[in-house]
Amino acid sequence: MSGKNRLVGERFVIDCGSEAYPENLAGIPRPPKKLYGIGDPTALQAGLAVIGARKATPYGKGCARRFARLAAEKGVVIISGGARGCDSEAHRAALGAAGRTVAFLGGGCDELYPASHFALFQRMVDAGGAVVSEQSWDTPPLPYLFRERNRLIAGLAEAVLIVEAGLPSGTFSTADEALDAGREVLVVPGSITSPASIGSNRLLFQGATPIVDDESFEEVLFRVFGLLRRSLPDEGRKTLHPLVEAVRAEPLGMEQLYELAVRSFGPEDAQARLMELLVEAEAAGVVARHPSGKWGPAVKW
Is residue 287 within 8 Å of residue 251, measured between CB atoms? Predict the structure, then answer.
């Protein structure tokens, strides 16, 4: 990588056994002998890992943003791998919440991967976070090194949140590393018909902790990090129309929505009532128009 593309910031090397070495990493199987990083070494603290598919769906990206932001707003460091898809969305959400975030790379810190995320990595460094690797500065990002670095993402964290994972996948392997390190695995459920959620749902079947809404997530933050839970307003507990609940369950196109509206309101009133419900639900932050054109759950695009 040319010098002009190298990250600007404090460079550090932390030896295993030194006072600055993160306690969480010291206790994992095969702790790295050295950590090479750019940024603030104090950002290497027990936090929340948020990971998911590289070829993420809008649902997966939205969930990564949503829960990373909620945790970052409470001062939790967000840890991920800097990859395309869910990882980068989690980093961006943490930065948007004025939080700190750490990316563990497969190659060295002077061989950024993906290179297209240079600006994102620089923002992380500038915001008091860090970009870190167990590989020396110029180590190329070889494929097998990414599996190795997954144990560092899981190891530094107190808990690992998986927002979307297929089978097989690097995300699923990180869950294995988390279990080996004694970390709690949290999973956002996905559609049983989505290939992108096969791994996620399998982890739930095997006993991972389900994250089904903001409240369940905050319960975990309280239990794992000792953070105070937020009281939900009464408005959030109101019963929604079944058609809106259907949209919150999975993204639906207008033809599907119209069919549901006809069943609920009859053919004469279906279109008007459908648009009325969608406008009200969107204004309340319950549903949103997705980039695909479908209507689905609002997940902070």
Answer: no
